[in-house]
Design a protein that fits this description.
mainly alpha, two-stranded antiparallel sheet, 6 helices
Length: 135
């Protein structure tokens, strides 16, 4: 057991699970088309995890102009978004770990005074054990 206190609060860890921080339709559109233009209007009842075609529309730029641009199809967007969300879900352990690891200056100081092996056992391993990488 490490003597080093864990740094992340319950609130910090709850943010890791917050879908507001997850990829969205614009991320999916940009992954499909790096030159994506515009945004989306999400209608009442829009659910990021279970998207209904009738619950969102592409709206062009902030002025509503499309300038002849054709956005990715809704089917392509939904498929790409599902991929991005799966990747995001699979990396939850990384976000938890990032909250828990001490600041880099603290880690470097610890290495300087105690060595790399002690740093691994006292600072790194407890966090990795608390939030293991999925197999």
């Amino acid at each position: 057991m490490s003597f080093y206190p864990r740094s992340g609060s319950e609130e910090d860890h709850n943010k890791v699970l917050d879908l507001e921080q997850s990829p969205g339709l614009v991320n999916a559109a940009e992954a499909l088309d790096p030159n994506f233009k515009g945004g989306f209007l999400m209608k009442e009842g829009f659910d990021l995890r279970n998207i209904d075609d009738d619950k969102f529309d592409w709206v062009g730029d902030s002025l509503g102009s499309t300038d002849g641009y054709t956005p990715p199809t809704k089917a392509a967007l939904k498929t790409k978004l599902a991929e991005l969300l799966a990747e995001w879900d699979n990396k939850i352990y990384q976000r938890h770990r990032a909250i828990e690891y001490p600041q880099i200056d603290e880690q470097l100081d610890y290495i300087y005074h105690n060595g790399v092996e002690k740093w691994k056992t006292d600072m790194i391993d407890p966090v990795k054990n608390a939030y293991p990488k999925p197999s």
